[in-house]
Amino acid sequence: MDKEQVLQSNLGEYSRCDKHKQKTDHRTIISKAQKTDAALKEKIRNALWNDKVLRALDDNEIDVQVINQVVYLEGYIVSSSSLNRIINALHTISGILGIKNYLVLDDKLSSQIASSLGMLEHNNDCKFFTGVTHGVVVLNGQVNSKNLRKKAEQCAANNPKVRGVINYIRVPGVELDIQDHRFLQPSIGEEIKFLDGISGTVRKVIINPDNRRVVAMIIQGHFYGVMRNLPLSKLNASQSEEQIIVIPMVATRHVNERSIFLNINSSDFTKYPEFDPSKFIVPNKDWLPPYPYCPDDILIPVKFQPVDKDIAGNPIQASSTHITGIPKWMEELLYNDSLGG
Known about the structure:
Helix content is 28%, strand content 25%. The chain is built from 11 helices and 16 strands.
């Protein structure tokens, strides 16, 4: 296999989200080809795990999919050195017909971010220091205004390969909220547990596009009945249905690969108001969500909705805040209180 061919990638020819949908739709039919792909994937995971350097630096960040014996690599690695180790490991496995690489290298992403911040530095006589770990950008430095601090954050977040931006840029007289800088990405379908043991399921996440980070998650569960230890027959109509609520990420105590643990009890869900569909929008089709999310996983606060501009470049206020195109089931999910909107 030609190594140059291995290192080429074309994001237009492969969609992890589309492939996931196809696998879900046909999950009950397992063909011989799918069994071959599954066996190859297991061999690949073992080969990557057996490389001590990859295991220490990148293993949990590499997503491997095998379709018709073609390997698709996606995720984040630290450098081209890691990429070479991955390709060398794959070359030891027979049965692979091709390798498509969509991995993002932290060192290259860091260079891109630093370059994009250059104009801000030049125009405002300041210096930003950037670091990238598996797609998460960390900004440091000092500026003279909160507005400039926000601009730097937005500039870094404009790169669609960025998973999220953690902003440690200091402004004189402004105190940083350290808890607010945790980087958390709850998985869709993941179990979420309250302090009292009651659990629900993550349905969607709310993202702040200014930093591409999750600010809240939408969870679903039977909180009324379980909380009061009552059978569904004893509850009224509204209480017997599953509740769908929004929990801010600041209420998260711990996240692991299987579950999310909150620092609140299930009874606290009653503190959140009814969902308001006018406060959220579906992302534009040309906006790429942060890895590993798919477009259908995400909602965005309506205050980030782009506004039209006149010929002079002045914003034109929309005549109506009504949002079209939101499915009925999604309207029940949307609400803004936990985001401070």
